[in-house]
Amino acid sequence: MIAIYPGSFDPITLGHLDIIKRGCRLFERVIVAVLRNPHKTPLFTVQERLDQIQQSTQHLPNIEVDSFEGLTVNYAQMRQAQVLLRGLRVLSDFEAELQMAHTNKTLSTQIETIFLATSNEYSFLSSSLVKEIARFGGSVDHLVPQHVALDIYRCYAQNHPTSTLTRTNPVPPLNQSPLDQEV
Ligand code: PNS
User: pTM of the entire structure?
Assistant: First the structure.
């Protein structure tokens, strides 16, 4: 079976990686799919996120990293995938995730959503939280892969004491609370 793991991944966290690694043990192939969403102002471009995910998962043999736009089920059908993989951290994720799974089921009865419980140590973690910590000069070394942490510090260079690089394009404002539903 082929599974799609869709998301924003702005940026990928150790929580995402936990789901990806475990998904790779369960499925023949896992396609990590970054949504190209014109309505959001991400910290990283789609290409930057693809590179970050690629670099974080290069040790996994049965993984592919891609981007898509439009409906996830349409993309899954196009890729001949049978499963949408999502992580569930805490109870507050459940409502939105269930709504999404039911909506997707109405769009395609052929595609199943399978949830993996995020490992306990990452159950608090979200991309938004990572951005908030870094934005205020905190360390995110324990929350994201090392190369992603460096990318983040570059973005928030003015606030981070160890960063010497500055980003040419402006950093977008944090428009989401850390408690938002990014997995
Ligand atoms: O990482 P995120 O932001 O929680 O991922 C959400 C995502 C990308 C999985 C979801 O927004 C999505 O599938 N968007 C594509 C549009 C779509 O298919 N909508 C119908 C299902 S709600």
Answer: 0.89
What ligand 1 atom has the least distance to the C-alpha of 127? Answer: 1
Interval between CA 65 and ligand 1 midpoint (Å): 16
Question: For the domain that residue 90 is a member of, what is the CATH number?
Answer: 3.40.50.620
Query: Are 160 and 106 in a shared domain?
Result: no
Distance 182 CA to ligand 1 centre (A): 10
Tell whether 58 and 145 lie within a shared domain: no
Helix (H) or strand (E) holding 34: strand 29-35
* Domain shared by 69 and 148, yes or no: no
Judgement on whether residues 50 and 7 belong to the same structural domain of the protein: yes
Residues with Cβ within 8 Å of residue 84, at least 6 apart in sequence: 3, 4, 5, 6, 72, 73, 76, 101, 104, 111, 112, 113, 114
Question: Which residue of the set 40, 92, 139, 147 is catalytic?
Answer: 40
| Active-site hit among 89, 126, 131, 163 | 89
Range of the domain at 41: 2-122
Total domains in the chain come to 2
Which residue has tokens 């192939």?
29
Q: What is the pLDDT of residues 74-119, one digit of tens each?
A: 999 999 999 999 999 998 899 999 999 999 999 999 999 999 999 9
